[in-house]
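Predict the 3D structure for this chain.
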Amino acid sequence: MENRIDIDPAGNSGAGGGLHSSFVAWLHELREFLRGRFSLEEDKAQRDEVVANISKGVEFHGVNLWVLIFATLIASLGLNVNSAAVIIGAMLVSPIMGPIMGIGLSMGINDFELLKRSLRNFVLMFIVAIITSTVYFFISPLSSNSSELLARTVPTTYDVLIAFFGGLAGIVAQTRQDRTSTVIPGVAIATALIPPLCTAGFGLATGQMRFFFGAFYLFFINSVFIALATYLMVCFLKYEKKVFIDKVRERNVKRLMMAVTLVTFVPSVVIGFHMVQVSVFEASVDKYVAQVFNFPQTRVIECSKHYVHGGKPSQVELLLLGEPLSEEMIENARNQLERFGLSDTELIVRQGTGEERIDVASLQQSYGELLEEKNRRIGEMTSLLQRYRVTNVEVGDISREMGAMMENIRTVSLTKGITYDTAGSPGDTTLVCVVTPSDSTRSIDRETLIRWLRVRTRVDNVKLFVEP
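Done. Predicted structure below.
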């Protein structure tokens, strides 16, 4: 029997053509599947509805202004007491995202009036938040530099990325018909706009301008990249742009908006690129120190990294603890800088020699003695606290047990305290119990109740009072 091969008009064999057709069909199905999964058309709100909703959030007057003030005070309190939970709460109630998203939207749809309102309210929001936080920190008795404050003074590449992707998530959520999801509150927490403003106010109130400029820089970077993300998403969704009847005015407005875009976004992109370079440099330094300065008797206890762009070389300054390294070993470490991409970096090594060497054993003994003293003080305070404490759970349990033991008891009040003499010296712990009977004509077995309370509360000195 003859083997037969069909040839299609294009010159492909039947088997090969069928395989090719199946592969093309599979690719088409995969493309349609991915398009359906990643499509933003589902639950998409109308363009005018989205613009109206964001425009409403742009305005700062009445409720929005008061909420901003309260959110600033909450965030300032959280920074003051170093409480991350309080700061998160402030970010949740803050309406600060409105004008920033308004700026990005206005540039995306060519709405010059919305841009002016957004910029005006953005400046108003900034001034109000700065004044509120400055006044708070000026009158606050706590003025220490907490870790939460310090974390808002130096922006990193991660802050830029968080602001950008947070802005994308925020505008996507705003363009949905259902805005009751957790996306927008999550964006408010992730982008963290209100804490830098409060940190800037702290810098002004305490005269520490590095706090002010560092925090303002972080706030500005976050704001710009949220607006940039909004602008890009609006362009991606192909929202209809505003058309001017007066073509001359339209041309002037477009030029002005282009100038605003360039003045705002271009420096931010340059700054963001610089921050990426700093992050790459610091990561290379960490890798270099971990691999090159890995000695059994010597430890790196401090590593200072100073990135310099252009002219002067960057610097890495190390402080070593333990057995000093020889000059040959340090020179060998310098020769390995290029291998880690740090060819234009100067290495400075500081270590103790001779009498300057640190006695590790003495240092450990001192820390051990300090830790032992702290543990002793904690034990004393815990013991003192136990003498005072009568928790609600204990009182509730005791009251139920007393009710089950004696029927003629309606209410119970317990108080534990220290008895002092007239010279002010503390004595024994005293438990005061006040009982209200259900029926005043019936008596309560006081002696039995006192004995039971002594056993139940482990307090020997019990004072029992029965209300008439």
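Residues 9-13 have pLDDT under 50 and may be disordered.
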